[in-house]
Amino acid sequence: MLFDFQRQGRTCHVAYPLPGALTRTSWAAPVDAPPGYLHLLEHLLIRTNLARLDALAREGSAYNAVTTPDEMALYLLSPAGAEIPTTGPWLGQTFSEADFDLERRTILHERALTPEGAPVVDRLLGTRQEIADFRLARLHEVRAAVGDAHVITYTASPPSAPARDCRPVTW
Predict the structure, then answer these.
(1) How many CA atoms are closer than 13 Å to the CA of 27, on its beta-carbon side?
(2) For FRET with 148, which of 42, 67, 91, 111 sits at 20 to 30 Å CA-CA?
(3) Among 37, 29, 66, which residue's Cα sits nearest to residue 147?
(4) What CA–CA distance (Å, rounded) separates 27 from 143?
């Protein structure tokens, strides 16, 4: 797998062997999503698919999810030879009131770790008051506005020693 990134005025190319496949499934953030709702949707995506994700983990896969201001993404790292689920109803599950309340409380605990008034955190998680005011009906509206998933799968690369090549950035 090859990644390019910039650090201290240099473009770096980093290659390393990927023993299986990395699947990234992402959903664009709806323009009108209230603060914190996409992050709450991420939590419920994991919670409502836990049986499926745990079954994949028993086969050697690892997973995680992340929310940014622009999108929500689920990452699945699968061992060589494993079936790679590139499609499926990740967001097709029903969210129960109990799951919704549990994840809202979890996000309130996450929010307690960061100061109020940090613009990016306020947008991603919501303020404490916004989180307390989350409503399941509004979450269903946000989920409906998310749209189709964008799926990218990076497959195994041939075994090789890690390679690094950093050059000055050229404009």
Answers:
(1) 26
(2) 111
(3) 29
(4) 10
166 confidence band (pLDDT: 50, 70, 90): very low
Q: Which amino acid is at 121?
A: V
Measured CA to CA, the distance from residue 62 to residue 69 in angstroms comes to: 24
pLDDT tens track for 107-144? 999 999 988 899 989 999 999 999 999 999 999 999 99
Q: Sheet harboring 10-15: ordered strands across?
A: 2-7, 10-15, 163-168
Tokens 């998933």 -> residue: 149
What are 67's strand-pairing partners? Answer: 72
Spatial distance between the Cα atoms of 7 and 13, rounded to a whole number of angstroms: 11
Task: Map residue 59 onto helix, strand or coil.
Answer: coil
CB 123 within 8 A of CB 164: no
